[in-house]
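Most newcomers find our protein records easier to grasp once they have seen one. There is nothing in a record beyond a sequence line and a structure line. Getting from the letters to the tokens is the skill we practise here. An example says more than a description, so a record of this kind follows:
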Amino acid sequence: MLTRLSVTLNGIRDEAIRKAYSGIQLLKQNLYAGKAGCSNACNAMLLGSLMQGLHRSNLLAFAQPLTSQSFTNIRLDLLWGNLLQIETPASCKIPHCKKRHSCKLAPLLGGIF
């Protein structure tokens, strides 16, 4: 019974990690395509912040195409915490932005889970 339970829980964990992976891929594509930020400069800034944050958190594999890799060494709580800690530069002048620039990665990453 314990084996069946751990297989079930591991399956749920793997699915949540795959969902996070897919969400990061979609966000990355939207930033590349200019669909997430308020301007091209904003999309570039957010994409750079995302990639640097993934690198600092040793999650750069989440920026690459998915292979047959296993998620056995990834803890879901740490993944979530690391994603939410990726910061957007506090002060950045974005050309053609008529109001104070307020685009941040956190709301975009928050929709992943």
User: Anything to note?
Assistant: The mean pLDDT is 80.
